[in-house]
Design brief:
single chain, alpha+beta, four-stranded mixed beta sheet, three-stranded mixed beta sheet
């Protein structure tokens, strides 16, 4: 190989490396501009605000609000923001989507748990876990102490698996000791 061809080879090799470096630099610069790297702002706190106002008016930062989920929470105004993602004070970029969990107007329907033949304490725990309220306990004479004999909703028996709104009041009919039974069945005169 002569010197002229050797110099051309080195020239083209250096030219290819140089062009590759310039292309890589341009790609990284464009990516930095496109992703707005380093231009983050602190996420405002939208908790407690009305979700419909947020979704209609938007925000100064250009956030897009999306109602992701509705959850019933007693004592809150329907449509109030309960949770937001990303959380308040997180570093985010302008114009991103903000997912909101808002309070629902009405409580959801749930399935009535099977409480019959459980202990009173177990039944209370299951009622609380399902979001139901124990209104009162009626004691009924039974050989089974503190066992749930019946479940009442608005004065009527309610079967396990029935649809019922969360937060409804339930009455438990619970067994009460009948005292000591006689040893024999002799009649007393």
């Amino acid at each position: 190989m002569d010197i002229a061809n050797k110099n051309k080879l080195w020239y083209h090799l250096l030219l290819a490396v140089g062009i590759s470096i310039v292309i890589l630099f341009v790609i990284l610069l464009a990516l930095r501009l496109f992703t707005r790297h380093g231009k983050e702002i602190e996420m405002p706190d939208y908790l407690g605000r009305n979700a419909s106002e947020l979704t209609q008016s938007g925000s100064q930062e250009g956030f897009v609000f999306v109602v992701d989920e509705e959850v019933y929470k007693e004592g809150t105004e329907p449509g109030t923001v309960l949770l937001q993602d990303p959380a308040p004070k997180e570093k985010v970029k302008k114009g991103r989507k903000v997912y909101l969990t808002v309070s629902a107007k009405t409580p959801p329907y749930i399935k009535m748990p099977a409480l019959q033949d459980l202990s009173m304490r177990q039944a209370q725990i299951m009622l609380e876990a399902q979001g139901l309220v124990l209104e009162r306990i009626i004691e009924k004479t039974s050989p089974y102490e503190n066992v749930v004999l019946d479940v009442l909703y608005r004065g009527h028996h309610i079967a396990a698996g029935s649809d019922i709104r969360m937060g409804e009041k339930i009455t438990l009919v619970v067994g009460k000791s009948i005292g000591e039974l006689p040893d024999s069945l002799e009649t007393v005169e």
